[in-house]
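Today's session is about reading a structure prediction critically. Students often jump straight to the picture, but the first step is always the sequence itself: look for stretches that repeat, for charged clusters, for runs of hydrophobic residues. Only then move on to the predicted structure, which in these notes is written as discrete structure tokens rather than atom positions. Here is the chain we will use throughout the hour.
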Amino acid sequence: MAAAQRIVIENCSIATVDANDTEYATGHVVVADNRIESLGAGRAPEGLENVVRRIDATGHLVTPGLVNTHHHFYQWITRGLATDHNLFDWLVALYPTWARIDEPMVRSAAQGSLGMMARGGVTTAMDHHYVFPKNSGDLSGAIIGAARDMGVRFTLARGSMDRSEKDGGLPPDFAVETLEGALAATEETVKEHHDASFDAMTQVAVAPCSPFSISTELLRQGAELARRLGVRMHTHGSETVEEEKFCHELFGMGPTDYFESTGWLGEDVWMAHCVHMNDSDIAAFARTKTGVAHCPSSNARLAAGIARVPDMLAAGVPVGLGVDGTASNESGELHTELRNALLINRLGAHREAALNARQALRLGTYGGAQVLGRAREIGSLEPGKLADFVLWKLDTLAHASIADPVTALVFGAAAPVTASFVNGRQIVEDGRLLTADEDAIARSTREEAQRLARIAAQ
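Below is the predicted structure for this chain, in token form.
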């Protein structure tokens, strides 16, 4: 076997986000191929062989790469619409447009979504894609291909909808799949694309959309499918008071009890939002180790409310951060969610004790890895873990007067990314993508957004 090639990063602050929250004021990280080989205080050990690159990271904080746990990439080409709506009205306004997407649109939107996140320190992303119009092409393949080309570690949550307006749901009738078609297509996607290996770049989850757009049978059989195939499960849950009312009227119980009755609580499950959770809901999530994707900006944009994140964490619920679709979080960035999660949660019952800077960083890194089922591989800087990490520049005007680097990263302005590595490969340098042409993506997304708007207007 060829000798490992090493990258050495020195003279940096390090926040490992390990179990002890180990930090180094000035330290080093040694990468061997796609793994973290060692890290610690001071300079790297002498005599390392096959060092192909040394980085002087003076003025930088090194953290694990950010992990995004909830997104809808296709929405990149419908940003800035229905800006003064709550969730249900927003969905009704946008579903007729979304139902006309096709493969070129989805590929371009995925590139835009991934590129914006990667530039801001995301090394692992996910996409919950649930809109599959007839004859629209290979949408899952387009999304996975965009992530592969960008060099970002990726989970596709293969979504589905089978409850349309005629069945009491929100999507228009032409925007949904059949129960049988959705299950078959989801199984095919898992078998074709899911990689269960330690250093997998692509994984697939089973992800029916939400209680108000799917049948009970799709939920139940979706859970059975996921567990037969050995993959994770994802959906939306407890996002709004309207959803709570919908579940009580249709199923005679709240969202959490409904999910439990259909097999949708468990350590292989994570749900987006979970804003309206009572004590028994949180206890059920804690007991079953069901994960939560917390999306503070989207929850605020749609006036959904403030999720009880401090209570979830205290109970032992795994919680990560999510961008959510960019039709409800137009910035499309995750590093700004560190700050927004902290600030918005301090508006809740716990006030200034809700979250601190290190808890916010943990949500965006290790918490996200837990939620995606990849905490053994990513989410913290430890020997043997995959080399997914970010160098944040904190010696500029924006941050230089803040003594503590983690406080600077979370409380300060969005920090510049000098370098971002995924699987030991650098994908961002000085805030620019190394694996894609940002200007070409900008042109493509603008053109596809205009094309979709023309089609939807016909």
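Discussion point for the tutorial: The mean pLDDT is 96.
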